[in-house]
């Protein structure tokens, strides 16, 4: 009798947890003992390490990646009557944050190879921005682990006096031309959702900046707009604090983060070497690195390929099946006047394979063999 193959994890958090279980348990026990469950000393330690990783002076830990985006927009006074330029090919939080502060997202198309914001499309969106909206900010998304084209996008933003806020929810730990993600924009936000390359055991996020004034505003907004003490409120704020236990967990995960990034890169490169002749494998921006939040490729017969892979026990993911500009709550917001051709094409052809730093070669070979067979036999 042939043994049933072991299930394949799309993201293997269990193996990572076992690797650091003793250290995490000790860190959590320390929090339980000192009892500072909100804004405890681990928050300060985490913020220091995040700033070092990001190549900036300041990091602000907060409750989620979405909160990080909202805090960044609030810190710049962005709200009603303002336009925020975002890609449509992303998770909803990027556009959602703009709406939550009262601004209007304007949807920008993506580059066909990198799948990140297209500078030419951004320029068209700025030029055609409705007269009732004032262009205020650009929020590129670092999709699937790599930075967007901040050189080209930054030049356009600077030309028009727009704030650049990098949505690095998937790319923290990557770099562009030697500059770490964190220092590529005036403010950079990230997410510590468990599935992210650097994830906690719940929700969490951060904002990074070099600006001394901005970090003070961000700290105030994060804590109900607090002024000199907890009962003085200098501005409208939110409760956006990260809890101390999540910070303790993230400190232990940061200790192995560099090793995990190297493993992700090795696994991604091996996928590309083994699959480049059968599917359109991911392209990393020139001069950039990726932390491979997902390994996402393109094929003409995606749905048939996914069906065959799933039948063979290989899990897959689709990021993103329906772009934001085609979803009900966002359909009325402005978009590229030339259309969203690349975004609407990619929605039907992209899919992702299992990716995590603990994948062994035998498992990867099984995935590759199944994909090659699926592509060759699918109509």
UniProtKB/TrEMBL annotation:
The modification N6-(pyridoxal phosphate)lysine is found at residue 196. The active site is at 196 (proton acceptor). The keyword tRNA-binding does not apply. Keywords: Pyridoxal phosphate. It comes from the Bacteria. GO terms for biological process: polysaccharide biosynthetic process. InterPro entries: DegT/StrS_aminotransferase (IPR000653), PyrdxlP-dep_Trfase (IPR015424), PyrdxlP-dep_Trfase_major (IPR015421), PyrdxlP-dep_Trfase_small (IPR015422). GO terms for molecular function: pyridoxal phosphate binding; transaminase activity. Belongs to the DegT/DnrJ/EryC1 family. This is Pleiotropic regulatory protein. It comes from Magnetospirillum gryphiswaldense (strain DSM 6361 / JCM 21280 / NBRC 15271 / MSR-1). The gene is degT.
């Amino acid at each position: 009798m042939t043994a049933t193959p072991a299930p394949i994890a799309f993201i293997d958090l269990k193996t990572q947890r076992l690797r650091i279980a003793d250290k995490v348990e000790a860190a959590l026990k320390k929090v339980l003992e000192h009892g500072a469950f909100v804004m405890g000393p681990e928050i300060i330690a985490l913020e220091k390490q995040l700033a070092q990783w990001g190549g900036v002076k300041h990091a602000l830990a907060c409750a989620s990646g979405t909160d990080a985006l909202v805090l960044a927009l609030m810190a710049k006074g962005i709200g009603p009557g303002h336009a925020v330029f975002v890609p449509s090919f992303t998770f909803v939080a990027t556009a959602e944050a703009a709406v939550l502060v009262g601004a209007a997202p304007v949807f920008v198309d993506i580059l066909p190879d990198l799948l990140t914001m297209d500078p030419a499309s951004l320029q068209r969106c700025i030029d055609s921005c409705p007269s009732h909206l004032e262009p205020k900010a650009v929020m590129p998304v670092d999709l699937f682990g790599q930075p967007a084209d901040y050189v080209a996008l930054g030049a356009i933003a600077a030309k028009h006096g727009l704030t650049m806020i990098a949505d690095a929810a998937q790319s923290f730990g990557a770099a562009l031309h030697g500059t770490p993600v964190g220092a590529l924009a005036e403010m950079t936000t990230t997410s510590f959702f468990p599935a992210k390359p650097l994830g906690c055991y719940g929700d969490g996020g951060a904002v990074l900046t070099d600006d001394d004034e901005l970090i003070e505003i961000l700290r105030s907004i994060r804590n109900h707009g607090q002024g000199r003490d907890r009962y003085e409120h200098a501005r409208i704020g939110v409760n956006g604090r990260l809890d101390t236990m999540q910070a303790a967990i993230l400190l232990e995960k940061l200790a192995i983060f560099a090793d995990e990034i190297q493993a992700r890169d090795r696994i991604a490169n091996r996928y590309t070497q083994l699959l480049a002749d059968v599917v359109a494998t991911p392209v990393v921006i020139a001069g950039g690195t990726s932390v491979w939040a997902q390994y996402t490729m393109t094929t003409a017969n995606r749905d048939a390929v996914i069906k065959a892979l799933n039948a063979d026990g290989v899990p897959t993911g689709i990021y993103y099946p329906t772009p934001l500009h085609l979803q009900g709550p966002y359909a009325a917001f402005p978009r590229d006047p030339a259309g969203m051709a690349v975004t609407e094409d990619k929605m039907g052809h992209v899919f992702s394979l299992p990716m995590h730093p603990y994948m062994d070669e035998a498992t990867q070979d099984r995935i590759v063999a199944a994909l090659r067979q699926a592509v060759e036999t699918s109509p």
